[in-house]
Amino acid sequence: MAATLARNLQLYVGRVAWTVGQKELKEYFTQFGPVKKIRLPWNKDTGFHKQYAIVQYRTEEGMNNALGRDMHLLEGNKMVVQRKQLNANSSEQFRRGLADQNALQ
User: Fold this and answer.
1) Which residues pair with 53 in a beta bridge?
2) pLDDT at position 88, please?
3) Which one of 3, 17, 90, 91 has the largest count of C-beta atoms within 10 Å of its C-beta?
4) Taking every pair of C-alpha atoms in the chain, what is the biggest distance, in angstroms?
5) Straight-line distance from the first to the last Cα atom of the chain, in angstroms, rounded to the nearest whole number
6) Rounded to whole angstroms, how far apart are CA atoms 38 and 83?
């Protein structure tokens, strides 16, 4: 249950400028509420991040404050911010399914 709640407190942030790192993202999104974790995936072939991030808040209020802002501008780049959608292919759901399957055997 706690993992589901934590997942619901995640935002997808797209169009992240190349010059922005985890530190800058955390500083920016902390203005809306306490941030638990920032995930900024990197492309191992290019050495650059993939221009999107996942921001996980500690509180629903912080997440809603971020969603309530009309425009998110960081280092001159307008970012896209939306609630992260749950999907059936999530690794957490996959692991949970394996655990359930192993319990049945």
Assistant:
1) 13
2) 61
3) 17
4) 55
5) 24
6) 14
Q: In DSSP terms, which residues pair with 82 in a beta bridge? A: 12
Long-range CB contacts for residues 44-49, cutoff 8 Å, separation at least 24: 48/18, 49/16, 49/18, 49/21
Of 83, 24, 91, the closest CA to residue 54 belongs to 83
The DSSP call for residue 41 is -
Length of the chain counted residue by residue: 105
**Element (H or E) spanning 80, and its range?**
strand 77-83
Enumerate the H helices of 9-90 as residue ranges: 22-29, 60-68
Q: What is the pLDDT of residues 13-68, one digit of tens each?
A: 999 999 999 999 999 999 999 999 999 999 999 999 999 999 999 999 999 999 99
DSSP character at residue 32: G
In the sheet with 10-14, reading across from the earlier edge strand, the strands are 35-39, 52-57, 10-14, 77-83, 72-74
